[in-house]
Amino acid sequence: MILAPRSCCWLVAAFVLGATGTSAAQTAGTGVVIQPAPMHLEPDSARAPLTTVPAGTPVRVLARQGDWLWIVFRDPAIGDRVGYVRAAAVRVDSMPTGRVMPIRVDRLDRGYLWLSGNYQVTSTEFATFTRFGDTTAIRTTYGGVKPIVGDVALGLRVWNGLSIGLAGTGYGQITHADVSAIVPVPAPGAVPVSVSGRAREINRLELALHVDASWAVPVRQSRAQMVFFAGPSVFRVKQELVTGVFVNDTPPFVPITVVESTRQHVGANGGVEVSVRLYKALGIGGIVRYSRADVPFSPAPEVDVTVRAGGVQAGAGLHFRF
Predict the structure, then answer these.
(1) Number of domains in the chain
(2) CA-CA distances (angstroms) from residue 190 to 193, 245, 305?
(3) Coil, strand or helix: which one is 146?
């Protein structure tokens, strides 16, 4: 993350004053917030506020710039915070005097870490139809589940409410596949017959890496915030697929051929996260993520299958802001 020198100073320093026996007094001004006051990184109300200072909060007044006051207040969750508020929102008891000295602000939000468990609202069930020449046709319905999906996201703030982050999601499942087919009979002059069967223990593993840009919107007068995010995704899907059905004169009478195949494909994702800070960096939050990619497979000659990856996922977990 790269910030301008001026912004870096505002993020890591505020001004206070001390006193010496022989020099001019060095002291910060004091005041009390008389109405909820959005606090900004710079004296610009068009920017998203860093937080809202509650009414009744004592503050140290560092300087005045037009209609704005540069203040420090003690956030019980993360320590000293510095920024600009409207002067009309503060009752000033005294203004700063003497030479300004820098101090360090305890903590500032620089990024996030989300650890969530999500429930996929959409099922993973899908069906395929494959034709081999004029004598064989296979329809396969793959059983689906609504899986529990692990979701880990890490991001860094790059400007104002904008962050860039990476997220990983994944799950595995074992289901079955119901097969119906028209296949030739291995006998001279025999006509094709209709058969059906079930392939058991069909495995699937789906992993995805999401590269997201996000925008944080603080919820006024609270420790909550909303984050909207979107970006490209790379899916890696390992899927067992039915590639053939045959008819035998001896058991098994209808053997089904299953082949495991792995493919990667690019898709997209987007969603919203809502979190509430509980103590320092620790918070709880909920997330809704929609992702999708249509992954093409060719597990055998003349067998082309498209598997839809992703879906609508909603969940909750521990969401850190550091």
Answers:
(1) 2
(2) 9, 17, 30
(3) coil
- Residue pair 143/307 in contact (Cβ under 8 Å)? The answer is no
State both tokens at 42.
Answer: 């710079």
pLDDT in tens, 252-307: 667 889 999 999 999 999 999 999 989 888 999 999 999 999 999 999 988 999 99
CATH number at residue 253: 2.40.160.20
Contact 235/264 with Cβ under 8 angstroms? yes
Domain containing 77 equals 11-104
Task: Write the pLDDT tens digit of every residue in 40-65.
Answer: 988 988 888 889 999 999 999 988 88
Tokens of 157: 């703030």
Clarify whether residues 19 and 121 are in a common domain: no
Q: In terms of domains, do 157 and 16 share one?
A: no
How far apart CA 156 and CA 99 sit, in angstroms, is 35
Write down which residue in 60, 78, 104 finishes a domain: 104
Query: Do 62 and 194 share a domain, yes or no?
Result: no
Domain assignment present for residue 2? The answer is no
Question: Exposure of 237 by Cβ count < 10 A (0-12 exposed, 13-18 middle, 19+ buried)?
Answer: buried
CB 61 within 8 A of CB 28: yes
Judged by DSSP in three states, 7 sits in helix
Would you say the pTM of this structure is higher than 0.85? no
